[in-house]
Automatic annotation (TrEMBL):
<dbReference type="InterPro" id="IPR012675">
    <property type="entry name" value="Beta-grasp_dom_sf"/>
</dbReference>
<dbReference type="GO" id="GO:0006099">
    <property type="term" value="P:tricarboxylic acid cycle"/>
</dbReference>
<dbReference type="Pfam" id="PF13085">
    <property type="entry name" value="Fer2_3"/>
</dbReference>
<dbReference type="GO" id="GO:0046872">
    <property type="term" value="F:metal ion binding"/>
</dbReference>
<keyword id="KW-0411">Iron-sulfur</keyword>
<comment type="similarity">
    <text>Belongs to the succinate dehydrogenase/fumarate reductase iron-sulfur protein family.</text>
</comment>
<keyword id="KW-0560">Oxidoreductase</keyword>
<dbReference type="GO" id="GO:0005886">
    <property type="term" value="C:plasma membrane"/>
</dbReference>
<keyword id="KW-0004">4Fe-4S</keyword>
<dbReference type="GO" id="GO:0016491">
    <property type="term" value="F:oxidoreductase activity"/>
</dbReference>
<dbReference type="InterPro" id="IPR017896">
    <property type="entry name" value="4Fe4S_Fe-S-bd"/>
</dbReference>
<dbReference type="InterPro" id="IPR006058">
    <property type="entry name" value="2Fe2S_fd_BS"/>
</dbReference>
<dbReference type="InterPro" id="IPR009051">
    <property type="entry name" value="Helical_ferredxn"/>
</dbReference>
<protein>
    <submittedName>
        <fullName>Fumarate reductase</fullName>
    </submittedName>
</protein>
<feature type="domain" description="2Fe-2S ferredoxin-type">
    <location>
        <begin position="5"/>
        <end position="92"/>
    </location>
</feature>
<dbReference type="GO" id="GO:0051537">
    <property type="term" value="F:2 iron, 2 sulfur cluster binding"/>
</dbReference>
<dbReference type="InterPro" id="IPR025192">
    <property type="entry name" value="Succ_DH/fum_Rdtase_N"/>
</dbReference>
């Protein structure tokens, strides 16, 4: 059965904004994105929202619902009480462009900073051979839809604009782990992970993992193993001696 829901939606741009109240119809089986679309169709034709697939696969519709980072298209209205006020705000970590749309270019910058897949020099494309067992671990990370909810949630940058320069964020630290675990990647990414991409800032709070709509175990399966690899290298007595002797 349909009912009328109370919504509070953040409206504004990069200079100013505020929450605006709306009462809007909800029908059975709908998700929050349906309600946002109904608002556009009936009361707020200029309401800006980014979306594409409405199937939890394009990663475009990320926002915060009652303060929790979520995909608008994968959040069912049935998880809320009918008399609950539902507040929808843009992702907090990125600059607002307008209404629910944020500028996520921080993430593209971080993606570009990671050296790409580096196969052995004598191996030509087409000659790559891998066993399923070799790619098992990193395959999970390929499920990422780049919604940036984990990037938005991590406290290292969420309240600390000043850390953005030095911290790649969970999604891109996971990318480094994925390449590090790749059976054909010959680049050693451990020093760079720590020194250039800010792995040491992560204190494994696991908030990134909690919000990942793909259910990727970012912390347990990517970040902690990557930290272990970095620690192995850092505290390996041979490496330590080599660094003392040759890196001055
Ligand atoms: Fe989104 Fe998960 Fe990918 Fe992070 S790791 S960008 S939360 S899909
Ligand atoms: Fe941030 Fe995730 Fe680490 S939330 S602190 S990257 S475990
Ligand atoms: Fe594609 Fe929500 S619209 S993930």
């Amino acid at each position: 059965m349909g009912y009328k829901a109370s919504f509070r939606v953040w409206r504004g741009d990069d200079t100013d904004g505020e929450l605006q109240d709306y009462t809007v119809e909800v029908n059975e089986g709908e998700v929050v994105l349906d309600i946002i679309h109904r608002l556009q169709a009936t009361q707020a034709p200029d309401l800006a929202v980014r979306w594409n697939c409405k199937a939890g696969k394009c990663g475009s519709c990320s926002a915060e619902i009652n303060g929790r980072p979520r995909l608008l298209c994968m959040t069912r209205m049935s998880v809320f009480d009918e008399d609950e006020v539902i507040t929808v705000t843009p992702m907090r970590t990125f600059p607002v462009i307008r209404d629910l749309v944020t500028d996520v270019s921080f993430n593209y910058t971080k993606a570009r900073e990671i050296p790409s897949f580096t196969p052995p020099a004598d191996l030509k494309p087409g000659d790559y051979r891998m066993q399923q067992v070799d790619v098992e671990r990193s395959q999970e990370f390929r499920k990422c839809i780049e919604c940036f909810l984990c990037q938005n949630t991590c406290h290292v940058v969420r309240d600390h604009e000043e850390n953005k320069e030095a911290f790649a964020g969970p999604r891109y630290l996971m990318r480094i782990a994925e390449l590090e675990m790749h059976p054909l990647d010959v680049a050693d990414r451990r020093d760079a992970a720590q020194e250039e991409h800010g792995l040491g800032y992560c204190n494994i709070t696991k908030c990134c993992t909690e919000v990942c709509p793909e259910g990727i175990h970012i912390t347990d399966n990517a970040l902690i193993p990557m930290k272990e690899r970095v620690a192995d290298r850092k505290y390996d007595p041979i490496v330590w001696l080599g660094n003392k002797l040759f890196r001055r």
